[in-house]
């Protein structure tokens, strides 16, 4: 089980376990309305816990990032928590609101309240007095949150639009947290679920406020200056070197940074394609023109221009105990391997390394650089041009690496290529812990 699955299911287990100490889904008599009452509580708590955890993850805390194996994995978890929250909140909303509608349509008969209305006092009476407002706030916040989460999941929505609208979820969380605390069954406060809900909603609210204040970018930003740019028009790629200011604490090969060249566009993540050298303080980025921003930026960057950097992030750090490492860089996914070769050229680690670079286009200039990097790092380089030589297959790798079964595999490139490679290596018995990949995608 991966760490992100452990976190996801662990959170569900924690909510379920502590809720079951105070309540149950097995109501007696088992009928629609008694079940609705407990299910609305349970689904609401699950939704708010997931949303809170997603907000805390968005703070990009270094300890959490290390534990989860990198920011790309952290954002994958953030996305699954968002989907989970949307599903649970929709169920919660339907059982709460849909039931009222179904009673109105005559599909359900509302049970007659038995006995005299209980007089409440003190804190419980105060909580009861807030219910109307909490219900209305919760309902509207749910509609907005659902819309924002759907916008985030629909790939057709451009990234820049998603990025701007997604921030609004931090605002919407605040009324949802309030809704949960007020409408949670009052007797839960005497059990662990009550206090856990308080802690989790406060943590989520603090995270929401920090995110709205521009954290973590504001706290971790370092200024840099572009010192050189080289274009490879045949690849639609450019290479840019940036000298970073004193705030940059160094990085490991394979890590990445968020780079902002234009405030209105915001930060984009790029792998740092060079090792850390405190003398030059220079970071290299190799960027493919994959969309609007990267196309525009390739023309607008110039030497002496100031950029902002945030990082380093990522857990794609080549650390394992295998004597042989297989590296596969698909297209622009070659960048972390360039950085690692840069480090190995200065400080060899004694491993056998095979680097497979699969690319549709070839530039002799870029290829000569890659060959020179591989030679100085003592890395066996295999370049496969998919247009002329066909696709790189798992069998090609197996044939080229004598001890492939004892090796680790480090992959960066298209998701489909990673999936087919990893599934074949798994079938051949290579354990998951030896298969590493970097996602070039955070959505
Ligand atoms: C960890 C990581 C490392 C990366 N390293 C490199 C690299 O070394 N070289 C390189 O050329 N590319 C790299 N990328 C990809 C690069 O970030 C995107 O290609 C670039 O942001 C595309 O922007 P665009 O507006 O031109 O394209 P669009 O067409 O707008 O976006 C294409 C895709 O890029 C992603 N993307 C766009 N904007 C952002 C953003 N602000 N933050 C996160 N993802 C975004 C989205 O998935 C989007 O669907 C990396 C991505 C990640 C996540």
3D architecture notes:
The protein has 443 residues and is an alpha/beta fold. It has 3 domains: 3-108 and 123-212, Four Helix Bundle (Hemerythrin (Met), subunit A) (Up-down Bundle), CATH 1.20.120; 217-313, Elongation Factor Tu (Ef-tu), domain 3 (Beta Barrel), CATH 2.40.30.10; 324-438, Rossmann fold, CATH 3.40.50. The protein contains 16 helices and 11 strands. It has helices at 3-20, 32-57, 62-68, 71-104, 122-129, 131-153, 159-166, 168-183, 192-212, 217-220, 292-300, 335-346, 364-377, 386-389, 394-400, 415-427; strands spanning 221-232, 237-244, 256-260, 268-271, 282-288, 306-313, 324-330, 352-359, 380-385, 408-412, 435-438. It has a 6-stranded antiparallel sheet with strand order 4-3-6-1-2-5. Strand 10, helix 16 (415-427) and strand 11 form a beta-alpha-beta unit. The longest helix has 34 residues, at 71-104. The structure holds flavin-adenine dinucleotide. Flavin-adenine dinucleotide binds at residues 72, 159, 163, 256, 266-271, 286-288, 290-294, 332, 335, 440-443.
What is the element string, with H for helices and E for strands? HHHHHHHHHHEEEEEHEEHEHEHHEHE
User: Which CATH first-tier class of the largest domain would you pick?
Assistant: Mainly Alpha
Number of helices: 16
Small-molecule components bound: flavin-adenine dinucleotide
The number of E-state strands comes to: 11
Question: What is the count of distinct domains?
Answer: 3
Overall average residue pLDDT? 94
CATH architecture of the largest domain: Up-down Bundle
What is the CATH topology of the largest domain?
Answer: Four Helix Bundle (Hemerythrin (Met), subunit A)
Task: Indicate the percent of residues in helices.
Answer: 40-55%
Outline, from the CA principal axes? elongated
Strand content: 15-25%
User: What Rg, in angstroms, do the CA atoms define?
Assistant: 26 Å
What can be said about the biggest beta sheet? 6 strands, antiparallel
Give me the side-by-side strand order of the main sheet.
Answer: 4-3-6-1-2-5
